[in-house]
Amino acid sequence: MASPRSSSGPNDNAHEGPAAGARDGALPAAAARRHRWPFACRAEELAAFRTHLDSAEAGVLLLYGPAGVGKSRLAEEFLRDAQRSGHRTERVVATTADAALPLGALGHLLPPDAPVHDPVRTFHAAAEAFASHPADGGSRRTVVLVDDLPLLDNASAVLLGHLVRTGAVLLVGTVRTPVPPSDVVESFEHEEGSHRLDLAAFDATETAELVRGVLGGAVEHATLRTLSHASRGNALVLRELVAGALDSAGLVRENGLWHLTGPLTGTRRLTEIVHSRLAGLDGRRRRVLELLALCEPLSPDALAHGGHRAEDVEVLEEDGLIRVRMDRRRVVCVLDHPLYGQVLRRGISAARRRAIYRDQAAHLVEMGARRREDALRLASWRLAAGLPVGLETLLPAARMARHVRDYPKVVELLAGVPRSDAVLEVWLLRGEAYHHTGRWVAAEEALSAAERLAECHEDVLTVAMERTQNLYWGLGDTARTLEVNARAATRLDAGGRRVLRVNEAAYRLNAGAVPDALRLLADAEDITVPRLRLWAQLQRSLALGYAGRTGEAVDLARDVHDELVAAEREQRPGSPSSHASGPAIYRVAALTDAGRGGEARAVGRAAFAQAVAARALAPQIWIAAHLGRCELIAGHLGAAHDWFTESLSLARGHGFRRAVVFAGAGLAAVHAQTGRADLVERELAATSGPEGERQQASRLIRQLATAWQNAARGARPAAQRLLLEAAAGARATGMASYEGWLLADAARLGAAREVRTRLAELAAAGDSPLAGSRAELAAGLADEDHRMLHAAAERCARLGSDMTGAEAAAGAAALAARAGESRTAAAAAVLSRRLLERCGTDRVSAPLPHRIEAVPLTDRERDVAHLAAGGLTSQEIAARLVLSVRTVDNHLQRAYAKLGVSSRGELDRVLRWWE
Length: 915
Known about the structure:
mainly alpha; 64% helix; disordered N terminus
C-alpha cells in the first residue's frame, strides 16, 4: 500500500469505486481482529532503510518512538525487505531476563562451539559466522534486528558493535521513547555510521488509509475521524479500537460503507494497557485524573479547590498523563488521551461521581460562573449530581449548547422541564434540537406547541421558519409546509411577509419552479435580518445556477459563504462550525454547473471535513451528495460512488428522506454507467420515496439512471428517448443546467443531431463554459467532424469533464483515422487515453459509437522520445544509446506518428500525458 505522502487522488475515501460495496476487500472483518494488519504508510522510512542498506558507511539504524507506534513492525518490514534483496537476516529480542546473562540475547546466533568463556575467540567465531562468503553466493552483510535495544546485555552490545565496525552486520535497533538512561543505546548512537529515525504516530490521512486497507472498503469520514482522534495515530491503540468495535458489532458495513454505530469500547488488552499506564499512581494523583475524567477541562484553580497540589499537576504532566494548554485566555488541564477518561470513569462509583459533580458545581457558583460556557457546565454538573435545576439555569445552558451546535445536549437539558412550565423558548429549542437530531415527529410536536404560544412578529416568524424546515426536509410534506408558511404570513407585517416569500421560494425551487423562485427571491438583498438575508441569497444562488446563470450563482454563493465563515471565526475562533460548512453546499452546486469541478472539489472537501468536525449531519449529507454529482458529471465514477454512498448511508441512518432519494438516484446513475443494471433497479426501488417527497433534481437524476441502465443493456434508442423526455421536464421547470446535462448524455448515446440545436441555445442563453463544451460536443458528433470533436475534447479536459472529453477524443481519433489523417488520429487517441486515466479504474461501460486505442510506444521508442524531449540532438542520442543516427531518427518518427505530434517541442507535453 502506498504512502499517502506520495499518493494523489481524492481523499478523501480513497475512492475504491463501485465495486467497493460488493467486495470483501483486503481483510475480512474477522481477520481484522485476529491477523497481522497490512504494512502501510511508512514508505519514506522504508526508502531510508534501503539507502542505508546500500551504503557501506551506514552500520547502525536506530528506530525511536513511543510504545505502540509501530517500531517493531517497521523493523520487521526492514528485515523482509533486506531478505528479498539477498541479505541474511537475524532477529534478536532483548529482555530483562536475558540482560543478566552475558551474550544471553545473542546465544542463538553464535556457533554451537563458540567458547563463550573466552571473549576474544568468541568474537572471532562470531565474525566468521556473520561474514559473507562469495563462494556460497553471499556477498552482502547480515542485517540484525534488536528489538528493545536498551535491554541488550553489555557483552552482546560489545559483540554487535565489533561486527558493525568490521562491516559484517547492519544493526537495526528499536528504542522506546522517552528513553531511560542506557549505556547500550548511547554506545550505538556514537558508532560511526549510526543513523536515527524518529517514528511519529500516523496522521489523520495515514490512519484513514490504514483503516480502509484493513476493512477493505470505504469508511465513513466521521468514523475515520473518531478512530484517528481516539487512537492519536498509535498503531497498537488503533488496532485494538477497531478489533473491539468489530467484536461488539459497533463497527458495521451497510450500503458498502463501514461506520460506527456507537461509542468506541476497545478491548480487554487495551484496557490493560491503560491500567498499566495508570499503575503506580498514589491516591492523590489518581483523584486528579478522576476529577478531569468527569469534568475536564478544568483550570488549575478548580483543581486546587479540590485540595490537589500544583506539584501533582506538574508530575502528571511530566508523565504524559495530562496536558496543560491555553483555552483562549485561560489555562486549563485535560487528560492526555481520551482512553484514560474512558477507563477511569468505569472505576468511579456512582456516589463518588455525584459528590465530584456537586462539589464542582458549588465551586463554579462561588466563583461567579461568569464565563459564557459556565451556564452549560453548571446545569450539566447539577443534573449529573442529582440536584434540582430550575428553568433559570436550564435555559441559559440550553442556549449555550445550541450555540455550540450540541443538539443532543439541548434535548438532554430540557427533557425534564414539565409541560406546564415550558415557555415558548423551551418548545422552540426542543423543536430545533429534535430536527437536527433527526427526530422529525417530535420536532413537529414541539414546534406546533411553539406556534400556539408565539405572539410577537419575531416569534411568529422564527417558529414558522423552523417548522416549515422540519415539515419539508424532515417529514417530506410539501403541502403542509406551504400551508404553515401561508398561515404565518397573515400574522406578520410587510418585512415578515417578505421573509416568508423567500421561504416559499426555497420550497418551490426544490420542487422545480425555478422562474417562480427567482421572482420571489428578487428582493432577497433587502431583508434586514442578516441571518435571513444570507439564507435568502443562498436560495437565489441555487436558482441562478439552475437557470444557467452560473457566474452569478458562483459569485453570490461565494460571497455568502465567505461572510458566514468570517462571522463564525469572530464568534468562535478555532472551533468547527456547521453554519460555516452548510453554505458550501450551494457553492459546490454552482461551481459544478459552471464547469469548475476542481474548485467544487476543493471547497466541498474542506467544508465536509469541517462538518464532520462539527458533527453537523445535514451539511455532511448534502455536501457529500453534491460532491457525488460533481464527480458523476466529471466521469470519475469511483469517487462519485463513494460520495453518494456516504451521503446515502448517513441519510438513511438518520432519516433524511429527501436526501435518501437524491443520493440514491445518484448512486443508481453510477451503477448504470458502470454497467451494473441489476443494482440500478434495486437502488431506485430502495430509495424511491413518495412522489411528493422527491425534489425535481432527484426526479431528473433518477431518469438519467434509468436511461443509462437501458444503454448498458444495449437499448440505446430507449435510453435516448428517456433522456429527451427528462430534458423536456427540466426545460418546463426552468432547470437549464440539468437540461444541458441530460441532453449532453443523449448526444453521447447517439442523439447528437436531435439535441445540437437546443444545446447551442442553452450555451448562448447562459454563461457556463460547461454548456458551451456540451454544445460543441453535440455539433462535432452530429457533423462527424473530427476537428470539432478534438476541440470539444480539449475544452472538456480544461473543465474537468474527463469522461465526456475522453469519448469525444476517441470519436475524433476514429473519424481522423477514417479520413486517413493518422497523425491527427494518434494525437486524439493519446488525449483520450490521458482523460480516461484521470477518470480512474471505474468507467462508463455502455457501448459508445467510437472506440480507438492509442498505439503504445516500444521501449526503444520511449527511450529515444524522452531523450529528444530533454533537448538532446539525434547525434547525442545515438552516442548515448549506441545506435546510428538514422536508427534514432526512424524511432523518433515512429514515436511522432503514435503520439500524434510533429516536432520535438511537442514531445515533452505529450509524453507527460502518455506516462
